[in-house]
Amino acid sequence: MSNVDIGIDLGTSSVIIYTKEQGVCLKEPSVVAVNSYTGELLAVGTEAAKMLGKTPDKIKAVCPLEDGVIADYELCEKMVKYFLKKVSENIVIKPRVAICVPSGITDVESRAVVEAAVVAGARKVFLVEEPVAAAIGAGIDLNKAKGNIILDIGGGTTDVAVLSLNGIVTKASLKIAGNKFDDVIIKYIRDNYNVLIGRHTAESIKIGVGSVAPRLVDAEMEFKGRNLLSGLPQKRKVKRSDIREVLMEPVIQILQAVRSVIERTPPELVGDMLENGIVLTGGGAKLDGMPELVHKVLKIDAYLAPYSEECVAIGTGKLFDFTDDMSDGIIESILYPHH
């Protein structure tokens, strides 16, 4: 492999890498483990994630990204460098790299992402806003004068945008997404069961019995944690109906952001939405009952895109195929090339 273009979904929860030749070639948690005293890199990705919450003082396992942006620049740089090396060992020429970012990212945050990729070995870096990458990954034709609305619920951020003629018409980005779902579950279990659970257990509950379906079929799930009164381990059971009640608060905030975007959209494009529906992408969009709830609240059909979790990475990797077809002005509005 002499040369390659790489698309990276640099997410708060996971990093997904796509190349045209290999498809999705890497999908690992956004976690880095280092020696607390020397700063030596010990593990990245899946291996580092196994250490979260289980490390002695000499080892620190952390997530370098928070709410969709870089929280620890040095560790993020090491993580990107590790993953790029892992997928491009046989590449002779440094790759062009496209990285997706939340649509509300600042210039300072953008620069940090670009510098991390350049130091990690990229020849040229493009940043693309998540809704654009998600739309391309979902197979939506952006060339047409048709309004398409994308709702991308990731780990740290939710991005919603209306797209038409290769550009973003209206958009919103909020720091309420999959990780927030986990946080409200942790708080509910602590407040109602006096049991402390970790993020991994909360995520298991979310996947197992988490739902926002308007018509709910109740179920139970067992979980383990530490009793806050006795300090001892404890097993308890939680109902789907209870978890649904807790999850509704952050999900309604997301739907309010979608409503706000629709209200700012030209009426002709709103008519297109009724025809095309709302496309849901991202890991958070896989929450049980999400498309049905979106339809119930917003009165617009909604559907989960195929490979919804990988949509953004796929779109980011395919971005290079679209750069020649789009007008220069539009490219500059969604891509930021850095030499």
Automatic annotation (TrEMBL):
It holds the Pfam family MreB_Mbl. The keyword ATP-binding applies. It is found in: Cytoplasm. Keywords: ATP-binding, Cell shape, Cytoplasm, Nucleotide-binding. It comes from the Bacteria. GO terms for molecular function: ATP binding. GO terms for biological process: cell morphogenesis; regulation of cell shape. Signal peptide: none annotated. InterPro entries: ATPase_NBD (IPR043129), MreB (IPR004753), MreB_MamK-like (IPR056546). SUPFAM superfamilies: Actin-like ATPase domain. GO terms for cellular component: cytoplasm. ATP binds at G155, G156, T157, E203, S204, I205, K206. Belongs to the FtsA/MreB family. HAMAP family: MreB. Forms polymers. Forms membrane-associated dynamic filaments that are essential for cell shape determination. Acts by regulating cell wall synthesis and cell elongation, and thus cell shape. A feedback loop between cell geometry and MreB localization may maintain elongated cell shape by targeting cell wall growth to regions of negative cell wall curvature. This is Cell shape-determining protein MreB. It comes from Hydrogenoanaerobacterium saccharovorans.
